[in-house]
Structure formats: C-alpha cells, structure tokens
Amino acid sequence: MTWSADLLDQLEFYWGFHFRPRLAGLTDDEYRWEPVEGAWSLRPTGPGGALELEQLQPEPPVPPVTTIAWRVVHVGRDVLGKRARAFFDPAPADADMYDDRHWPAAPPGDAVGALALLDEAYGLWRSGVAGLDDEAMLRPLGPRGGPYAADSMAKLVLHVNREVMAHGAEICLLRDLYRAYADRRDPVVAAALRGDAAGVTAALRAGSAGVDGVRPTLVAEAAGLHHWDVVRALVAAGAPIDGALHYAAGAGELEVVTLLIEHGADVAAKDDTFGLDAAGWAGYFGHPDVAARLTPTST
Asked: Which segment of the chain is annotated as a signal peptide (predicted)?
C-alpha cells in the first residue's frame, strides 16, 4: 500500500466530486442562516468585536445544531488549516496542532471569504500530505500531535479524511434544508416541486415578475421529479428549459421530449456528469424509441 497516494486519493475524490462543487453559489444569507433557535454560529465575541466560533469546553452532552458558517470555518481552520501549518509549516515551534497561533486570523463573516479560507487550508494540507512517503506516514506525530503524539501520521490523515467527509455531509445537508426553506417562500417553486401544475399557473399569474422571475433550473427540476404537467405548464408560460430534455428522455416521456424540442431544446447538449446527450440518456435507461426520436437522421 502507498499510504500517501491512497489516502490522498480518498480525500481528493471526495473534495473534488462530492463536496466542493456543492458549495458553488453559497450566499452570505445561507452561510449565516440559523436553522433552529440556539444554533451555534459565528459571533462578535472576540477582541474588538472580532468573530469567533461559538463553542464550549467541555462540549455539552448534546451539542447545539451549527450553521454552515460554523462548519465551514471549523473544517477550514481547525481540521485542515491548523494541522497543515503544525506539520508542514512548523511555526511557532512550541505549538501543537490545536494551537490557535497556527491560524490567528478571525473567521470570515461572508461566504466568499469562507470559501477562500476553505480552499487555502485544503491546498496546504493536500500539498503537505502529497509530499510524505510511506516511512513518514508511519512515523509518530511527536509533540505536535498533542495528546496523540504516539499516533502515526497515517492515523491522523485518516482522521482528517473522516472529519472532512462528516462535516462536509452536514454542510451539504444544511444547504439542502436552506434550499427547501427558501423554496417554500416562492409560490411558483413551491407549487412546481409538489407537482401542482394549476398552482404554478396561478402563482405565475399572481406574481409581478411572471415567467421572468422563474429560476432557470425549475423546468429541469420538475422533469427530474417526473412532474410532467408542471413541465407543460412552465413550458407554455415560456420558462427556461435547459436541462429538462435529458430527464424527459431518461424517463421515456416521448410526448414531453417532443414538446421540449418544439420549444428549442438542444438535442446535442451533453450533461456535465456523464458527458451524454439526451439520446444517450434515453438509450441508457432503456427507451430506444425516444433515443431514435432524438437521433438526427441523415438525408
């Protein structure tokens, strides 16, 4: 086993495929959103009103729910950043991997700054681990490991991987909950996602923005949920249809596929995940008739 390569590959795959792309579009409101009363977040309790993570030592028996801000800063600064500087940029010399002097800057109060912190810390940790050989991986942490001085670097890397994955999953769940919270406040979106085509039409008529206010992915989202009457209602209203064709094709909905093509859907467009066009989705999910409809014929 090549410790550094295999363990780093585990983290890199999770970071690049599962976690970091899910943070695209993070807003300040979402970053600081408190899903329940009493949630731990960033508070201006530091020197001069600097932001700090809410936390207590010892930890309460049932820790409070934390915000995205809390989790992102914890992962970036505490899980990755401090440890990267403790072992790969060892200054100050008398500080173990928990010492705040490794990352003295106050946590960022905005989403852009938080993602920059996360990316910087990940880059430092990743490059440090990439430079370790198997012998270094099996070497004890020593004084910089604090109470875990006798543990190997490999054990720490495994722990960091677990921490990033666990907190990353929690951050992604909080994003899902925030989206659901925001969706309920938009009558068009709320009706579309529950499959209420009549409600979609009524909400569009009642809203001042009309179809111009519909989010660009809503038709594709409705298609992904197989809410075909909602798709028809949104298409009839002139909503953007990008991405919907793949889902209709994959579900074998020939009539909806035809409707989307008639309204300008690009049959040659490929999805970002698998690199397939809509005909490819139809073929993969066992709908040859739909695939044939989507395949250009030569003359």
From this structure: none
